[in-house]
């Protein structure tokens, strides 16, 4: 055997480079196309191969880890389990790729249970990564021992790299990509696909910055443009906290969101140490009131302490403010590169266009193969008597196949299909089905050929896919970004408030049960009232980018909202059991989130709120169509702890659905759940005493009342349905016929089987 002498420094250099590349490509750095490291990709593919789909039962994590080790990833079982766990943690990933059952760790740093105790299956986001993997869309390579094959990359319909982010340390390289908002990333992909010459600055108008699963506030927006351009820098995050007044004139600090990847237990421990060391003498107590609804750390202060000053100290001395590194290092064509956000989006677009092309080629081949067989079957049916006779007279299958190919011009594949055809397919009905299938297949072939031959067509499909993700996977921004470019701090924004506590700019509306639409000044407060009689609030600046209120009780939902500075002196609350309460607005201050403002009877709930007029009449109306009109002065003001007074006397199994102020309106619109609209004179609804039954305004006992709307000459309405859809209409008094109060409706909205939830008036 020949001995080759190599200088030791050269051998060490080459071996180190080989080792470094092995770690970079095989372990630590994600592929730009699907945003996954090899172990993550192998876990997801193994679970896909095992059939662990979202609608299927969970299986033990140990079984998944064993499959991954045995077929795809022959490394440590703990390393595989750690990767699996992280993909299931909703405090680490915006859009978890795995659904876990059992103890998968916590934001307090608690470790997950052993793999023999936990269970898992794929999430719907993982299915999007794997969609069309069986259609030859990606390359497969041999596994470590050549016994099977694994995907080199996933098709990745879901832009996982930016949406979930990643972090990894290789040899001489590191990557750190923060998570982002799905809707924003998809919109950026759409715009970049339409206009490849977009600048990073234009992209950043869509992707406002990181969007962490733990929320928080990004402070250095003005620096992000440079960091996202170069692919390197730091994003500065601080916790979301506010100061509350408590009994005795003292203040307390409440922390509701902490920076990404901060250990909550260690954070509280650090604050306690600072108090013990005398560096935060103003703090008297600290409590962790967090639950499954969200984080809530309460820091009680001594009597004369200033909450704002203590909060600033906490930001300076603890992890309530921290930096998260930005380092866009990814594998592009198998090589590690540091790139800007535009390149990350471009590479995802390039990958998806390639997947669409390969999928179309596969589907074209399958459609052509099936069309070929259908044409043969139709040709045989056209010569049915002869075909049957030739088959019956043949000695064996081989002779029958030869007769069919020679006499009728069938190919061997078509002849085989004819011989395999069941007798029931010889009917005229089956022939019609085959002819219809042939027409459909020809249309598919033409479509797939058009897609394969036109990049513009593939771009159109990509855009449709991204629009579908935005529509079907609505994503509310969790992290607030301070100092957005073009942000008008003296202006306002129109927002939509949803029943589940979501608050979105009207330009970002998505499906969901809508309860209100309001214009909120940037520097004002938006207050929400829930069905359980609790009050929640956010700043107008938070509404600017979309937000969500964490409701405290199970089954609780938002029934209405108001802007603090625009509200009148009092609000009127109506309950399902017929109680009505007028509460002074002074009770609605920036206090603890979820503060109760009414005492509800068992089984009762708030159904609607109204800014109380100083004079005039109120309309209280029920599901079965009873409307009671009475003076607003008949409702006495009440404090926070009372349940109010009886507003309307209810009949058996009826309930209140709303309250409105007439405010001098000449007409009233009566709107039923199935979309009927009736205009009646307000004079037909007599003024009666509070606590009586009211009058019936429905034509049929089968109808159910959805809402009542006072009407001027023109009223613009947004109609929200129970299925989460909305539509708009402009109703003009002169065009809508006048009806009797108990007569039939003269107009109807076409809502199919849906039901109307609420009708909201708005200004154009």
Automatic annotation (TrEMBL):
One of its GO terms (biological process) is DNA topological change. One of its GO terms (cellular component) is DNA topoisomerase type II (double strand cut, ATP-hydrolyzing) complex. PROSITE patterns: TOPO_IIA. It holds the Pfam family DNA_topoisoIV. The active site is at 117 (o-(5'-phospho-dna)-tyrosine intermediate). Its EC number is 5.6.2.2. Residues 29-494 form the Topo IIA-type catalytic domain. SUPFAM superfamilies: GyrA/ParC C-terminal domain-like, Type II DNA topoisomerase. GO terms for molecular function: ATP binding; DNA binding; DNA topoisomerase type II (double strand cut, ATP-hydrolyzing) activity. Keywords: DNA-binding, Isomerase, Topoisomerase. It catalyses: ATP-dependent breakage, passage and rejoining of double-stranded DNA. It comes from the Bacteria. It is an enzyme of class 5 (isomerase). PANTHER family: DNA GYRASE SUBUNIT A, CHLOROPLASTIC_MITOCHONDRIAL, DNA GYRASE/TOPOISOMERASE SUBUNIT A. Belongs to the type II topoisomerase GyrA/ParC subunit family. This is DNA topoisomerase (ATP-hydrolyzing).
């Amino acid at each position: 055997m020949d001995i080759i002498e190599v200088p030791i420094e050269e051998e060490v250099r080459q071996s180190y480079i080989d080792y470094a590349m092995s770690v970079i490509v095989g372990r630590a750095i994600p592929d730009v196309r699907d945003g996954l490291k090899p172990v993550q990709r192998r876990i997801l593919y193994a679970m896909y191969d095992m059939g662990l789909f979202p609608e299927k039962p969970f299986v033990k994590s140990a079984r998944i880890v064993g499959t991954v080790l045995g077929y795809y990833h022959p490394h440590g079982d703990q390393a595989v389990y750690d990767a699996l766990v992280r993909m299931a943690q909703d405090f680490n990933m915006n859009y978890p790729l795995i659904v876990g059952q059992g103890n998968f760790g916590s934001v307090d740093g608690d470790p997950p249970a052993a793999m023999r105790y936990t269970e898992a299956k794929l999430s719907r986001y993982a299915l999007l990564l794997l969609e069309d993997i069986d259609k030859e869309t990606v390359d497969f390579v041999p596994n470590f021992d050549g016994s099977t094959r694994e995907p080199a990359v996933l098709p990745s319909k879901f832009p996982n790299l930016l949406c979930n982010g990643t972090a990894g340390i290789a040899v001489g390289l590191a990557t750190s990509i923060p998570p982002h908002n799905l809707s924003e990333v998809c919109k950026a992909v759409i715009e970049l696909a339409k206009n490849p010459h977009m600048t990073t600055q234009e992209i950043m108008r869509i992707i406002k910055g990181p969007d962490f699963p733990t929320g928080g506030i990004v402070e250095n927006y003005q620096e992000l443009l440079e960091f996202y351009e170069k692919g390197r820098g730091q994003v500065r995050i601080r916790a979301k906290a506010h100061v509350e007044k408590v009994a005795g004139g003292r203040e307390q600090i409440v922390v509701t969101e902490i920076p990404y990847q901060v250990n909550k237990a260690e954070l509280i421990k650090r604050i306690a140490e600072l108090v013990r060391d005398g560096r935060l003498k103003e703090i008297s107590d600290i409590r962790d009131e967090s639950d499954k609804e969200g984080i809530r750390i309460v820091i009680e202060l001594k009597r004369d302490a200033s909450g704002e000053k203590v909060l600033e100290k906490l930001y300076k001395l603890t992890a309530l403010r921290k930096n998260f590194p930005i380092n866009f290092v990814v594998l592009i064509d198998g090589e590690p590169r540091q790139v800007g956000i535009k390149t990350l989006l471009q590479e995802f677009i390039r990958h998806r266009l390639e997947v669409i092309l390969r999928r179309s080629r596969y589907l074209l081949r399958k459609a052509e193969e099936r069309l070929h067989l259908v044409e043969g079957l139709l040709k045989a049916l056209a010569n049915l008597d002869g075909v049957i006779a030739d088959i019956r007279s043949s000695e064996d299958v081989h002779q029958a196949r030869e007769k069919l190919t020679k006499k009728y011009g069938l190919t061997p594949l078509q002849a085989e299909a004819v011989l395999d055809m069941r007798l029931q397919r010889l009917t005229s009905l089956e022939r019609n089905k085959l002819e219809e299938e042939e027409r459909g297949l020809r249309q598919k072939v033409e479509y797939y050929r058009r897609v394969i031959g036109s990049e513009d067509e593939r771009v159109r499909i990509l855009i449709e896919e991204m629009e579908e993700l935005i529509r079907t996977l609505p994503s509310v921004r969790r992290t607030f970004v301070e100092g957005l470019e073009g942000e008008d701090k003296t202006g306002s924004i129109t927002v939509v408030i949803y029943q589940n506590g979501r608050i979105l700019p009207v330009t970002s509306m998505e499906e969901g049960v809508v309860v209100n639409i309001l214009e909120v000044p940037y520097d004002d407060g938006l207050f929400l009232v829930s069905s359980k009689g609790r009050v929640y609030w956010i700043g107008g600046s938070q509404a600017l980018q979309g937000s969500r209120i964490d409701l405290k009780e199970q089954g609780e939902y938002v029934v209405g909202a108001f802007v603090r500075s625009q509200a009148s002196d009092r609000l009127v609350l109506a309950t399902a059991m017929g109680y009505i309460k007028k509460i002074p607005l002074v009770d609605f201050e920036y206090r603890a989130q979820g503060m109760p403002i009414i005492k509800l009877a068992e089984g009762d709930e708030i159904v609607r709120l109204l800014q109380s007029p100083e004079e005039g009449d109120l309309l209280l109306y029920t599901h079965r169509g009873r409307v009671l009109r009475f003076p607003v002065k008949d409702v006495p003001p009440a404090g926070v702890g009372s349940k109010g007074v009886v507003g309307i006397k209810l009949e058996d199994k009826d309930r209140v659905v709303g309250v409105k102020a007439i405010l001098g309106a000449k007409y009233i619109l009566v709107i039923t759940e199935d979309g009927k609209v009736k205009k009646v004179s307000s004079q037909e609804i007599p003024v009666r005493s509070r606590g009586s039954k009211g009058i019936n305004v429905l034509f049929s006992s089968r109808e159910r009342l959805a809402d009542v709307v006072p009407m001027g000459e023109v009223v613009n309405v947004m109609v929200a349905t129970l299925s989460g859809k909305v539509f708009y209409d402009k109703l003009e008094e002169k065009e809508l016929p006048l009806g009797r109060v108990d007569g039939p409706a003269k107009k109807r909205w076409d809502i199919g089987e849906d039901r109307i939830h609420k009708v909201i008036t708005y200004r154009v």
